[in-house]
Amino acid sequence: LVSREIKPEGTTIEVGKLKIGGGSFGIVAGPCAVESEEQLLQAAEGIKAAGGDGLRGGAFKPRTSPYSFQGLEEEGLKLLAKAREKTGLPVITELMNLTELDLVEEYTDIIQIGARNMQNFGLLRAVGRCSKPVLLKRGLAATIEEWLMAAEYIMAEGNHQVILCERGIRTFETATRNTLDLSAVPLVKSLTHLPVVVDPSHGTGKRKLVLPMAKAAVVSGADGLLIEVHPDPAHAWSDGEQSLDIPDFQRLVGSVRQLVKWR
Ligand code: PEP
Ligand code: MN
Fold it and tell me: Which is the most buried residue in 74, 103, 208, 233, by most CB within 10 A?
C-alpha cells in the first residue's frame, strides 16, 4: 500500500489550511512539550504570525529518564485544543500508549507516533483504525525498509493518511544529537507516494543547525518541516538547546518559503 508503483502520484494530507505532500509544503512548529497555557498560546500566536501552518506540542513525552517531566497529559491536550481555537492552526501531538488513544484522538488533528514507538506494532495497528492522519517518525536506528513497513502496518488497517518524518538516526557521531539522513528524503519519495517531512530539531539537537538543515531539507524534496519553537528557549522544560525563538522561526519561514518557490 505504501508503494509508489501502485499509486504514482504523491498523496496529499490536508487538515484545514495545512497541506502536506503532492506538491504542497507545510510547516508545523511548536514547543517540545506543552508546559502552560501562557507558554503554548505565546508559541501558537507567534507561529501563526510568522506564517506557520500547524502547531506541534507534546502532552505525553517519551523521556529518557523516568524522573524528567513527562508531560501535562490531558491538561496539555486541552491547552492544544484551546490554542487551535485561538489561532485556527491544526494540532499535532504524540500518542505513546494504546490506553491513551481515545483521549488523544479526541483532541488532536494529527496523531504523532514517535521514533521510540515506530515498531510498536500494536500501536501502529490501532492508529491504523483511526480517522485522523498519522505522522510516523523514523525509528532511532530504523532502516528505510523497516520505516516503510511500519507505515504499511498503519495502512493495512485502513488508514491511508500517513506522513513520514525523518528525524535523524543514531550513528557513531556524537557531535550532533542524531545524524539527519537527508538522503532518505529523495530515496523514500522514490519508493512511496506518502509525503515525507523533516524534523531538523531532533535531527541535529542544535539550534544553530536547524535553519541550514531546514533549507537543505527543502532542496532534498521534503514535503514539509517539523520545527521546535519556544517563546523562551532558555527556560524550556525540554529540548531548549534545539528550539528556535519566535523571531528565528519567522526568519526560517521566510527563507524556506523562498526555496520552496524556486524548486
Ligand atoms: C518529539 O517530536 O517531541 C519527539 C519526542 O520526537 P522523536 O520521537 O523524534 O524523538
Ligand atoms: Mn523534543
Answer: 233
Ligand 1: residue of 167, 169, 229, 237 to mutate (most ligand atoms within 8 A of CB) is 167
How far is the CA of 100 from the CAs of 15, 18, 69, 81, in angstroms? 22, 25, 18, 16
Q: Beta strand pairing status for 26-30 and 224-228? A: parallel
Ligand nearest to the CA of 138: 1
Cα 207 to ligand 1 centroid, rounded to whole Å: 15
* Cβ(19) – ligand 1 distance below 6 Å: no
Would the CB of 31 count as within 6 Å of ligand 1?
Answer: no
ipTM, two decimals: 0.99
C-alpha cell recorded at residue 105:
484522538
Encode pLDDT of 74-116 as tens digits: 999 999 999 999 999 999 999 999 999 999 999 999 999 999 9
Residue 148, ligand 1, Cβ within 6 A: no
202: Cβ contacts below 8 Å, ≥ 6 apart: 115, 167, 168, 177, 178, 228, 239, 242
Among the CATH numbers 3.30.1120.10, 3.40.50.720, 3.20.20.70, 1.20.1250.20, which is that of 13-262? 3.20.20.70
Determine the length of the chain: 263
Where are the chain's structural domains? 13-262
Q: Give the span between the Cα atoms of 161 and 184, in whole angstroms.
A: 20
